[in-house]
Recover the amino acids of this structure.
């Protein structure tokens, strides 16, 4: 799962739900429209401070930008499941582990 895409999707979704333009979110957050556009497309790698500032501008909790993706995520790893709240958690490996075999020339 590419977290940049998750964050971008959530920023776009929350912005649209609130009826905000990128320009309005730019004014509220202090980030440029070009940066917000790249972020929404999953092309930017936001810092924790960026997530905080965006969440304050959108009036949501920072976790809302990284969690609660509706529906399946196409590139989600097969080794993760969602719990009841939609939070991803790793599965425990089952079965025995294979030992690395040595290759003889």
């Amino acid at each position: 799962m590419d977290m940049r895409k998750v964050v971008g999707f959530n920023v776009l979704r929350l912005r649209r739900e609130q009826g905000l333009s990128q320009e309005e979110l730019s004014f509220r957050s202090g980030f440029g429209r070009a940066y917000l556009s790249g972020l929404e497309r999953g092309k930017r790698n936001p810092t924790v401070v960026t997530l905080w500032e965006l969440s304050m501008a959108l009036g949501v909790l920072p976790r809302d930008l990284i969690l609660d993706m509706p529906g399946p995520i196409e590139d989600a790893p097969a080794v993760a499941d969602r719990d009841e709240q939609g939070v991803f958690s790793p599965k425990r490996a089952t079965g025995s582990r294979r030992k690395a075999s040595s290759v003889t020339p």
Summary: The chain has four helices and two strands. The two ends are 38 Å apart (CA to CA).
